[in-house]
Design brief:
Largest sheet: none
Shape: elongated
Mean pLDDT: 88
Radius of gyration: 20 Å
Order of helices and strands: HHHHHHHHHH
Strand content: under 5%
Distance between the termini: 77 Å
Number of helices: 10
Number of strands: 0
Length: about 200
């Protein structure tokens, strides 16, 4: 009796995968996480739904992979100063891309409250790695003597940066821009880190 080998799991080419991830991010911006479907992704990418489910376990995993495929915010930044690192982070995307990223975040904000699997995947695969990179950046600044190791603001840097990025549209009616975030870093983040207790 001959036993057939299990079919091999084919991988997409890196170019095709990048194209698919771009479509997923675009759909989140357009319709949000709730209304995004594997059918819509399959139709826009001319991929079968069976292929999508073979390569990704479900919508949450596909969305998180699409988000993780973007260049990291903090990884590999080391300009020699904290101000330089934070400014370099802001310059990684132009104003148009920042507006696109802001729409992407808005498309996910409500969903994380009703889809625990999405929240868990985002924390594990996107938030925690970025936070680890940011903490390394901040530790370098501590080691250089730019900020005190006991600065009470250290645990809140990610909240300050994320808050400025996500709430600009809500408060000012304008998207986040390089100029806005750079001035926010200089006026709020850095002075807060070096301020005494």
């Amino acid at each position: 009796m001959v036993v057939e080998a299990a079919p091999r799991r084919r991988r997409m080419t890196p170019e095709r995968e990048a194209e698919l991830y771009a479509v997923v991010r675009g759909l989140i911006r357009e319709v949000g996480y709730e209304a995004l479907t594997m059918d819509a992704v399959a139709a826009r990418t001319r991929t079968s739904k069976a292929t999508l489910y073979r390569l990704w376990d479900g919508k949450a995993q596909l969305v998180v992979k699409a988000l993780r495929s973007r260049k990291p915010r903090f990884g590999a930044l080391d300009t020699g100063s904290l101000r330089g690192d934070l400014h370099a982070m802001v310059r990684r995307d132009d104003d148009h891309q920042m507006e696109q990223n802001n729409a992407l975040i808005r498309g996910l904000m409500t969903a994380v409250h009703t889809h625990p699997e999405l929240l868990t995947a985002l924390r594990d695969r996107v938030i925690e790695p970025e936070l680890a990179d940011l903490n390394r950046m901040l530790q370098r600044a501590v080691d250089r003597g730019e900020i005190r190791p006991d600065s009470p603001a250290l645990p809140y840097v990610i909240h300050m940066l994320t808050g400025a990025f996500t709430t600009r549209k809500l408060i000012d009616g304008q998207p986040p821009t390089q100029a806005y975030l750079t001035s926010y870093i200089d006026a709020v983040v850095l002075p807060t880190l070096v301020a005494g207790p």
